[in-house]
Amino acid sequence: MTEILLLLTGILSGVVNTLAGGGSFIMMPTLILAGVPPLLANASNTYAALPGYVSGTVGFWPAIRQHRKLLLPYSLVALVFGWLGAELLLVVSEEQFAQIMPWLMLAAVLLFTFGKQVSALMQGLRGAGIVLWLFLAAVCLYGGFFNAGLGILLLAFLATAGMVDLNAMNGLKLWISAVVALVAVIRFAASGTIEWYYGTIALLGVTIGGYVAAHFAYLIPAKALRIAIILYGIAMTGWFFWKL
Predict the structure, then answer these.
(1) What is the pLDDT of residue 46?
(2) What is the pTM of this model?
(3) 8-25: burial string, b at 16+ Cβ within 10 Å, e else
């Protein structure tokens, strides 16, 4: 039953990530409910999300290609600070991570809920070059440490950088997310921090869900899905605080 639950939840998470983002709110709590310790669940969730980022990048490649001059500098920042974020996770004990995870979930839910307002607020930083690069570095550091909410922060960064083409923004968001997740997964794998069995079942589900959602996205109202994700995220955050 645990395997079936993880597969079904993974499918749902893949659908949600493709349609609106926020699949980590579903996948990571399920891994924890399956008995995976919180720190390992966080690393395993990053592993499970990686194929979705890659397939999404491929799907958005025509839009990404128009901004290919940005790929190298963005990738270098993602590699360095995604790795540092993963290193930071590995020096935190299970007990410490369990203490801070409810706060990370709360931050991720707030970012998901108020993503447009965050983007608008950060627009005021446009033109401050060093600040923009520090912003991207901080986002990638966060993503290497905790995957949930990464997409919203990246969209806020890209809006701050002056981008307005939503397809290009989504494509670059997925590209950077893929680089951050890849380097983090390599580091987690080297340290034995991934629950491979449950994580791979989740990965299969996420991959299936993302593929299906790409073909039937028009059948689900995006606004209704977004509200459902927010409510679920609030419920899970409350549950983690209660456990804490």
Answers:
(1) 94
(2) 0.85
(3) ebbbbbbbbbbbbbbbbb
Rounded to a whole number, what is the largest CA-CA distance in the chain? 53
One-letter amino acid of 229: I
Give the separation between CA 149 and CA 32, rounded to whole angstroms: 18
Cβ–Cβ under 8 Å, residues 27 and 49:
yes
Q: What single letter denotes the amino acid at residue 159?
A: A
75: CB partners within 8 A, 6+ apart: 175, 176, 179
Residue pair 53/174 in contact (Cβ under 8 Å)? The answer is yes
Q: List the beta strands (DSSP E) in 56-159.
A: none
Instruction: Classify 163 as helix, strand or coil.
Output: coil
Tokens of 25: 């709110």
Residue-level pLDDT at 147: 86
Place of tokens 């995976």: 36
pLDDT along the chain (244 residues), means of 10: 92 78 84 92 94 84 90 97 97 89 84 74 65 91 90 82 81 93 97 95 89 67 74 84 81
Q: Where are the domains of the chain?
A: 2-243
Which amino acid is located at 35 in the chain? Answer: G
Give the start-end residues of each E strand in 54-186. none
